[in-house]
Every structure is written in C-alpha cells, then in structure tokens.
Predict the 3D structure of the following.
Amino acid sequence: MKKVFIIHGFEGSPNGGWRPWLMEELEKLDIYACALPMPTPESPICSEWVEEISRQINSNKNDDIYLVGHSLGSTAILRYLESAEKEIMGVILVSGPCRKNNNRKIDSFLDKPFNYGNIKSKSKKFAIIQGDNDPNVPMDDAETLSRELEGKLIIVPDGGHLNGSSGWHKLPQCFDELNEMMNQTMESRPI
C-alpha cells in the first residue's frame, strides 16, 4: 500500500497551509496520507523529530512510503534518512533549509553537515520545491539539495516560503510531483 507522511515545519501544525488540501487530493486517489504532529514545534529537538518519523515508518514497514516535508520538516526528513533502515520510494522537500540560518531554535537540525551519500541511497527519487523569493530559506539551499541528492528542482515564482502565511493553501506542484513519482516507481517494479 502507498502511504504518504507529511512533516510540518518550525512552529507548524499538521493542519496548516497546504497539508490538508494535499491529504484530501491523495485520498481521492485512494492513497493514505497523514500529516504527522511533530513534538514541540515551537522549540524543536532534532532527535525527537527523527524518532517520530522513524516510529511512523517502522509501524508501516510493508508499505511503499513517500515523505513530504515543509521547511524544518524537510530538514528532519534528511536527518532521518541519514540512518534509515527502510528505503523510501520518494521524497519531496519544500522550502527546506540545509544550512544554519538566523533561527537559533533550529540549530540542532543543522549543527553538522549532512551525509548526502547515505541520504541519497535511502530513496529512489527526490524533488525539491522552492519559492524564488523565500524570505527564510535561500535559493542556494534548494540548489544544494537538488545537486547533492540528484533531485528535480521546481522553482515557484513569487512563492515566498510556500506556507499558509504566504497564501499557499494548495500546492499543486507538490501533488503533481508526488503523483509522477508514484507512477514512475510503479513502472520500474519488476513484474
């Protein structure tokens, strides 16, 4: 069974921004989707977020798992993948930072370089979605992730941080890319 786990960002919630819309669109295709409530989103601790992602995936070992992260949720997915045991079918990172920025509350996620080799080996496909004028995450971060993970880079004109505060209550770019990933991974399976 295909399952999509969506990870919100710093100070976020499962029901913010475009997450409810994405879950609804996936449900129309009979695909299970769940936006996970991450622990202490106002004072996030990397190990706790990675543990929550790991717990959900370990509870669904026999399913085809896709991960979608927004902002710090993307960074948490990367940290999870560094030591993941199960291969993930596809990963979409939306407005995800990969370098320290001005927000000291998220330093535990960005305090060491990423092991991109390990991360890349844990998923069949990667896509990075970034607003061209994101005030929180520079375009350099999206370009780095795209290059290091050999992932498709999708730039959204005037997208801001691609969150509810930027007016994003639907994110068709994410849905379309997820749909494409699911179709490609099904086609590449042996008969």
Remarks:
- The domain at 2-187 is CATH 3.40.50.1820 (Rossmann fold).
- DSSP finds seven helices and six strands in the chain.
